Every structure is written in C-alpha cells, then in structure tokens.
Amino acid sequence: MPVLGVIENMSYFIAPDTGNRYNIFGEGGGERLANQYGVPFLGSVPMGIEVREGGDRGVPVVVGHPESPQAQAFRKVAEEVARQVSIEAMKPELVVLKKSQ
C-alpha cells in the first residue's frame, strides 16, 4: 500500500477565548517527516475538545461544529488525501517508501 503523505494530528491548540495559536508539541515536525521520506505533507489538524466530544456522541466535528478550526483542517486534509489517491491511481507501479537523500 503506498503512503499518501503525512498528516500532523494535534498539531497545535487554538484558545477558544482569545483565538491565539499555541504549538504545544513544537512546530513543523510533520512537514520535516514528510520531507525526510519524500512524501507530501497533507496538513495539520489542531487539538480541540469538539473532536473528542463529537467522537463520543458519534457526530463528526465537520457535522457538529462545521466552522471550527478542526473541521476546516479535516476538510483540507480530506481534499489532499483525495488528490493523492487520484495521483496514485494513475501510476502503473507501486512506489516503495524510502528516505530521501
């Protein structure tokens, strides 16, 4: 199975009261990993309680909180995944993952 790319989950936190962005776990790790392996970086998904609460209720954040930063990020990542699936479908052979030099 080909690797379509890297998605950085829990990439950052946006404070609901101020809108400030906090990179709690650092910044750019997903992009560095994607570059290291020569695969696309598909996007970052911020942390948010809405994702966990929606998961507990069985309501995806893109339905329950469609305008939230998390929902927007998931939609962007989904578009990138669809783009990469389309690209892979056009390839005649399977490409093996390896580190870029």
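Above is the first protein from milestone M3; the second protein from the same milestone is given next.
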Amino acid sequence: MFARAAVATPRNALLRRLIAQSSLALGVWAMSPAAWPAVAGDPAPECAASTFDNARTIRVADYKGKVVYLDFWASWCPPCRESFPFMNELQRELGEKGLQIMAVSVDKVAADAQRFLARYPPQFTVALDTTWTCASAYLLPGMPTSFVIDKRGLIRDVHIGFRDKDKVEIRRQILELLDERS
C-alpha cells in the first residue's frame, strides 16, 4: 500500500540525464529556424546538388540576379509528370528575360530519375539530391514542392503539389518578379 521510492542507481541517473538532455535538445531544435519549412519571405536556404553527370554543382545562389523557380521532384511523383512540360514552356518563354528553372530530384536511386528524364526531357537545369541535403534544407512539405525565388534570393512563394490550375498563378508570379528591379 505504500508507494515504493525509486532507487537511485547509476542507470537511473544516466536515464534521467539522457531524458533531460534530449528534451532540451528537442526544444532548442523546435525553436530554431531549421525546424520549420522554408516559407515566403525567407532567404532561400543554401544547399548544393550535383548535375546528373557530376560535371558541376549547382546552387540557388549561383543565379542571384535572376528569378529562380526551384522545383523538388521525384520519379514516383505523378504530378511531377505534369509539371515538367510546364517548366519547359516557362524556361523556353522566359529564360531570356531572366528566369532560371532548377529542378532537383530527390530520388534515392539515380537510375530512377534518369528513366523519368528520358520520358520527360527537361530544357532546364536538373540536379540530383539522393542524400536529401537540399530537400532537408527546405523541409519539403509535399511532393512536388516548388519555390519562386526573387532576384535577391528571397522566397516569394511556395507551391505544394502541382495542378493544371496552378499554371496561371505561377506564371503571373514569375512575370511580376521579372518586372521588378533588383
């Protein structure tokens, strides 16, 4: 009928210390900006991804002074099949006006992404992020996720998923940013 007092052992002390440290670390992590997805108004997070031939590394910062449409995609993503022809159209129409499309595959296996690209050939810059370095920096809320980034490197809009009805709004946002002074 009496509650048994906890016996202080080295194992219990270690367990209590581990729980306290984990709670503190989790609290600090949850309060840090890295714990939240990138949103409109944030600077575009820094990350680097390699082109499929490993010939070069690309970064959003490489395109400062241009409007960047950064798209995270995967071969298994049905809406991504719809977005690639649209991104080709945007790059073809607006590339000379200062638009740079960057599409980053998050496929774990490069061959899966390459099969997708053979079926939906891009006319824009494509990179591979098998380790999810860039995807983690942006904390993607869904697939695909696209970020409209202005000439100064600030995220101006985020699009989760891709639907045919999104095309008009995305194009409007990009045109508006292309018209802005840096």
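Note on the second protein: The chain has one domain: 37-179.
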